[in-house]
């Protein structure tokens, strides 16, 4: 009897610790978005619409180079982590980190040359410097933080994960506010802040990585890992037009202030995704379990349990969008409201696509992600190009909705097809 009670108490403690860790991981993952939401009104007082246009445009350029700088190496490390010994893991992550930094240093300069040629050939009116250097240096340094965070997660260091994420965000916000509100450096200050905060954290990152690495340099092993990662890099580039191509086409309209309003609109709309993240994380284990157990009725219920409250949240956000924009932009950029309301529809449809994407992963059909991303990417280029050239900024916003709709429908139809085949094979 006493033994059973002790076992029960032990199980209760384990369950509590699991939920506590899940909460810390969740907060660590979204803390940057929360602070972005809180500081948006302050930045809006000191940044112009043109500043927001510059920030949005270079964020899109950064999105283009992100896959090549990261090269999905953390995913390869994740794939192997539980299949290898601790020493093998330590050797692999050291090897990955060293060669990523070496190759990315070279890629940084090659990328700058590519951006320079693009700006000159297309006569881009947005200043090239110093913004190009800011995004490329940020990409180079971000890998170090990503590798530290992935090690915290794999080793169940939830509190360390949260504290590191929180410290990075607090430094970023503090420095950003000082540079933008204090020194009036505008978009330059906003983009420089993450670089400075990362440089401050590098000594701590090195200290942590020394604990989780063993010196091991083998270029053949790195290229082996790179070959494994290559399809994931292609999938990331296939998705790029879906999320970023609009800013490239809109820049050609030569109206950076309106591009700023557009960028504010889609940024504010993206805050509602915090609701989806919370719901998706809460039910993610159930999705994987339902697929594994072929419980398709439960999948339908999970869909309803996620998207019914999510739709309510989006509807409320849309109804009060004018007031929310006024609050978040200090009443300066109400002109972004149409872009916010239209983008909210795209955000909801994207959530549906992500739901079915989880089902593909649960079924082990990860190649379908590349197929759907490729379809979506090609469609996004065609739709956005036509929409921007015919209807301008509003066309780009409605184009996002159409693209998200195509992605949601395509992923749903393919997922249902494979679930039916799975059910038929069991029968």
How many structural domains can be distinguished in the coordinates? 2
Tell me the radius of gyration. 23 Å
How would you characterize the largest beta sheet?
none
Secondary structure category: mainly alpha
What does this structure look like?
The protein has 427 residues and is an all-alpha fold. The protein has two domains: 1-230, no CATH class; 253-427, no CATH class. It is built from 14 helices and no strands. The two termini are 45 Å apart.
Write out key terms for the chains shown:
14 helices; single chain; 427 residues; mainly alpha; globular
Question: In short, what is this structure?
Answer:
The protein is an all-alpha fold and 427 residues long.
């Amino acid at each position: 009897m006493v033994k059973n009670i002790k076992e029960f108490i032990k199980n209760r403690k384990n369950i509590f610790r699991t939920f506590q860790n899940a909460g810390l991981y969740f907060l660590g993952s979204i803390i940057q978005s929360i602070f972005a939401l809180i500081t948006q009104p302050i930045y809006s007082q000191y940044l112009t619409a043109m500043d927001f246009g510059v920030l949005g445009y270079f964020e899109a350029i950064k999105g283009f180079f992100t896959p090549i700088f990261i090269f999905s190496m953390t995913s390869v490390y994740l794939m192997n982590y539980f299949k290898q010994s601790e020493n093998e893991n330590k050797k692999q992550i050291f090897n990955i980190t060293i060669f990523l930094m070496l190759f990315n240093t070279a890629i940084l300069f090659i990328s700058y040359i590519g951006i320079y040629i693009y700006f000159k050939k297309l006569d881009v009116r947005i200043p090239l410097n110093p913004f190009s250097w800011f995004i490329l240096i940020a990409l180079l340094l971000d890998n170090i933080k990503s590798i530290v965070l992935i090690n915290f997660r794999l080793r169940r260091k939830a509190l360390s994960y949260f504290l590191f994420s929180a410290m990075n965000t607090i430094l970023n916000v503090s420095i950003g506010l000082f540079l933008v509100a204090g020194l009036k450096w505008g978009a330059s200050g906003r983009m420089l802040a993450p670089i400075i905060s990362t440089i401050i954290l590098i000594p701590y990152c090195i200290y942590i990585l020394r604990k989780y690495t063993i010196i091991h340099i083998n270029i053949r092993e790195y290229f082996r890992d790179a070959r494994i990662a290559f399809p994931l890099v292609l999938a990331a580039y296939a998705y790029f037009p879906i999320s970023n191509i609009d800013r490239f086409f809109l820049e050609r309209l030569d109206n950076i202030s309106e591009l700023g309003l557009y960028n504010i609109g889609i940024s504010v709309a993206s805050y509602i995704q915090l609701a989806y993240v919370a719901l998706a994380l809460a039910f993610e284990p159930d999705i994987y379990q339902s697929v594994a157990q072929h419980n398709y009725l439960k999948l339908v219920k999970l869909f309803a349990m996620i998207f019914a409250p999510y739709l309510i949240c989006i509807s409320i956000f849309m109804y009060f969008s004018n007031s929310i924009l006024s609050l978040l932009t200090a009443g300066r950029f109400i002109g972004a409201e149409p872009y916010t309301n239209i983008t909210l529809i795209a955000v909801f449809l994207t959530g549906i696509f992500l739901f079915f994407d989880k089902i593909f992963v649960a079924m082990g059909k990860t190649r379908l992600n590349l197929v759907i991303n490729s379809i979506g990417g090609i469609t996004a280029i065609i739709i956005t190009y036509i929409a921007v050239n015919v209807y301008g900024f509003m066309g780009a916003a409605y184009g996002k909705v159409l693209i998200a709709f195509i992605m949601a429908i395509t992923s749903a139809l393919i997922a249902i097809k494979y679930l039916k085949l799975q059910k038929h094979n069991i029968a």
